[in-house]
Batch of 2 targets.
Target 1
Amino acid sequence: MVWQMIDGGVTAPLGYQAAGVTAGLKPSGATDLALIYSEVPAVPAGVFTTSCVRAACVDYNQRIVARQEPVQAILCNAGQANACTGLEGWRNAVECAELTQQELQIASAVLVASTGVIGRQLRMDLLRPAIPQVVRALRRDGSESAARAIITTDLVTKSVALSGEIAGKNVKIGGICKGSGMIHPNMATMLAFVTCDAAVSAPVWQEMLTRANAGSFNQITVDGDTSTNDMLLALANGQSGMPMITELDSAPAQQLQEMLNAVCQAMAKQIARDGEGATCLLEVNVAGTADVASARVMARTIAGSALVKSAVFGRDPNWGRIAAACGRSGVYFDQTKLHIQIGEFVVMTEGTPQPFDRQSASQYLKSELVQVFVRVGEGSGTGTAWGCDLSYDYVRINAEYTT
Amino acid sequence: MVWQMIDGGVTAPLGYQAAGVTAGLKPSGATDLALIYSEVPAVPAGVFTTSCVRAACVDYNQRIVARQEPVQAILCNAGQANACTGLEGWRNAVECAELTQQELQIASAVLVASTGVIGRQLRMDLLRPAIPQVVRALRRDGSESAARAIITTDLVTKSVALSGEIAGKNVKIGGICKGSGMIHPNMATMLAFVTCDAAVSAPVWQEMLTRANAGSFNQITVDGDTSTNDMLLALANGQSGMPMITELDSAPAQQLQEMLNAVCQAMAKQIARDGEGATCLLEVNVAGTADVASARVMARTIAGSALVKSAVFGRDPNWGRIAAACGRSGVYFDQTKLHIQIGEFVVMTEGTPQPFDRQSASQYLKSELVQVFVRVGEGSGTGTAWGCDLSYDYVRINAEYTT
């Protein structure tokens, strides 16, 4: 299947509008309230944090998605996470959703998302007047404005859109996201919102999103911390005019899955590259395990190792740390089969260290994209994970945040 | 049971000698070869890294300990880890053990340990002449000299000794260890050696060590990386003259277990406090889980969170990160029961944020020992973990190591 990258983010697919406005939740005065709106009711899907300390919005959305209720909007604020806020936090989440529904004059549900400091109540005094504002600001080219309003410590906005042909119709899928660590319970929760004009049944759409997430957002790591607010939401509104997909193993379903995977992976890589303090994107490819799950775990372990990450920051081709991370990943392998490559530099084969040009390898580690390849045997399992280096700036950003 | 802290480290118990000499393996020229010797054959016990990329010495020792062979010495070098070194590495480990045996003129086994850079062969040209040297240097007060020879990036030597009365006899137990991160596959593997003059059967001694390890070395974390070389070895030589312990649930066994726990915990805390770049010791106490294992996991998750660690370094009483770490630990609890305390500052009770004096709490985080208390319910499980803050110096040390 062929698709192409296009502009437009979440408003690239037909029938979507978006906006971002300033409610006053961020001390900086930057925009902090975003709305994504589908002109017709859409089929929702969602993947949520596995933490048992969860923000009110996570519980709220999960109920709506589980019931497969039609959804027509996603409201997201940055500034307060609305996590650890008890019953008041729950009531505020519900009120935000209902106010948005009223302003939009829709019967379908509104999903809500928050990111920011844990343990502080939403500033409802600021949000109540801002919700009508953000509804009035909705535009068919409003994706970038929404993308800007959801970021926190992120240095750049993150967005992607693809266009492809499925069942004779042009189908578009777009996304915006935020996150500057894999998860930062305080400031930089990972939130990702996908819009799509394909027609797909709710159970199939949910399964597709779960699969796309497994090979993308679940494979990035900045600091190993999982947030109270993490969520990936996806809407499919059918406006492309294609016939409804109802079977996961149909050709149109597979084509849509490929596009969804690509959108999620592109966003995941943007998050890893913008990891707090990061100076490069680290991509780790593992092959030769018994199955995909094992390869993914090992790739994540390597990409998440503080020692590997600091070696990359130091431009130090210190491959022993990669070997050690493989060994402790929990995936068993025969160490005499271990093959490790940093870029084009083979540093170990058959478990034996190889001579290599350290100077050139160190130079390679200055690249914008640093790739590590690991093979641990003859199995067919492969997996990729993305992360970033660990720099002084990661410590600075996270040590000096609230004080 | 009452015991007291005494001086003397691994040579405090009766019948032990130790030494450290310069073989020339460390570029700095500091001492780098240590020997611990029991004047009579001793019962060994050991706990080893769970990594499947393992140094030759790990495999070598594990075989001897599993067979419960009598052991009379532990030889340890710093400089090369002898990991990822294939068959040549294995042969070198065996040769080191055999040379030491010959020089000591003993029939009992010699255990070997290495720490340093992965993937480089032991400098046997330097070790062969140094082994007779270290045997000649053995002294009954040589513990500190041995402790100095095993350290790498450690800023201080680590040692402890206790004296207590068991079954009417004075029993002593001592230890030295090294490690400046929980594990640093490259430079700072965790090694700990315990000596004891109690009389105890091999299976009981092994079980005791496994238990002591679970509540001490397994509960410290500096960076979450597990080494290829980690090991905890313990010898019991019976020289105290006490009757042999053969039952785990006997009173003398329980007394010895308490002393062994205390020795291991003291060493573990010394390692966490000396974590690379650390400016304080972080102690996390969790209570109210269903069992001890759950409490320990949660305590480790909190102590190991990069976000919690950087907040402590920044003296930022950012308790939301602690709540988030609890939530993602994999231990289920009801978040409306969550209680969090930083020192004496109660920041959350019944899942609700509490007002507290941020200024004073920030001041408290400048302490040498920072304690966090978490209660998640009414269960009887409790657990403690130790770690340290994440500072600029951690990044500097690990980014700039080999280049």
Target 2
Amino acid sequence: MKTYLDCIPCFFKQALYSARMSKATKKTQKKILDQLAGIIPKISLESSPPEMARIIHKQMFKFTKQHDPYKKVKMQSNRMALEILDKLKAQVSHARDRLLMATKLAIAGNIIDYGAKHSLDVGGELKKIINQENKAIQKENKIIFNYGHFKSALKRAKTILYLADNAGETVFDRILIEEIKKIDNKKEIIYAVKEKPAINDALVEDALFCGIDRSAKVMSSGVDAPGTVLELCSKDFLKVYSRADMVISKGQGNFEALSSAKRPIFFMFMAKCPVVAREVNCQIGNIVLLYKGKK
Amino acid sequence: MKTYLDCIPCFFKQALYSARMSKATKKTQKKILDQLAGIIPKISLESSPPEMARIIHKQMFKFTKQHDPYKKVKMQSNRMALEILDKLKAQVSHARDRLLMATKLAIAGNIIDYGAKHSLDVGGELKKIINQENKAIQKENKIIFNYGHFKSALKRAKTILYLADNAGETVFDRILIEEIKKIDNKKEIIYAVKEKPAINDALVEDALFCGIDRSAKVMSSGVDAPGTVLELCSKDFLKVYSRADMVISKGQGNFEALSSAKRPIFFMFMAKCPVVAREVNCQIGNIVLLYKGKK
């Protein structure tokens, strides 16, 4: 997905928020916004928003020297999600369609995103989303939720590449991955995280902390942007990416980076901004399971 | 009120929205944002947001040559509000405290603001706000609604300066002004609008179209910013401003421009952005009747 003009105000919002996360003084915060203002006339709208976000955060580092300003927040998210892991698992156990519930939860876990929303009530929001998603299923025609397709692709796939989004959300991914493994233990699942800090995106340390490595192979994509921008990925990752039978991509950032990819991908995310909602033709707040086929 | 760093993303949002209202091409929209980016490092955060908005819109004019991009929208708002005038009047007639209801409606009319919110469902929103305000009165300590003070100041005042905000909202103001005149026909009410187009702020033509001149004297403040910035006001207006027994200031823009004014002012607005909500210590969406005394 290319960068829209509507993304520009949002870049300033994100930069300001990240500057504050880095404990920058007000003077430094202003300097960071001034610096960003200097970049705006030079940006290519052909780049995807995560590529832009990467440049912004790299520039910010020059002022704040904070390598990983979201580290504390990410660990909080991991802990918060782990605390409700048993409850979430019970929800799956009691569901009529276990895979469906695990899928719902994995998408709902995408509420943990400090990039787009700066406050969080996991319990409350989760309930709302699950209910909303029930309604979504009822009116499946109106909502993008390609579950049937997802289920059958999953059945066939031997190697699944699962692109992680945020820390904390990783716990929700673990539930879906464990469920997939329960269906067929022989499937190989590779859980790919970011190489270096990018907002609150999960790194290897988050994946391990959340126990994903019990049922999936954890690897880094080599990327230091808040989305899996293929041009920035490592060769090792690209091999896995092209050979995998199925790719599950979590979160808006990965969608923005990969929406024009040539290979088939299942995108799972909550639409958090008007630009993405317009791009996929849904409402803000909708949870989306979108299949994009081969180009 | 000074400009906060949080206002900067919003300036870009407003500029983009206004550029689209001016039917600027995408290329011109980008140029306008680039131009704004060039201004950011030079702005003084000591200026109020309406002063900044004025500069942005003046720059925009250079590209779009659109003197009054919101003209059509303003007339739509005027017509839309006039259509429900009788209903609104009936609401006042049936109220136990007529003045309170008219005051509520005048504040609720502040939903008509394309500067802060870009879609509008007057009927629905109004109902919500009126109910919210009922709740607000019940918990008066938690909500800023200095109605008692407002009522007694109104009783004493012989000359009242009423600072208009948006087109359309003017109809709601008319209801309050007519109610004040019903209580005491001898009160002199001056309804001050902006001199030149500033977003969707009411001009003399809007005030006349909405029939305010039946019960108030309509004048221009001399200002071409979306807030009554005293430094930009005409001498005639400043005379009225300093001599009036009471000043009623409508909308966020006027609050932002006058919150540090030396004379007592009653501010009426709906809090539409986190910065203003924090400034007055309320929630976004709250309707506010705030008295600020002599400094």
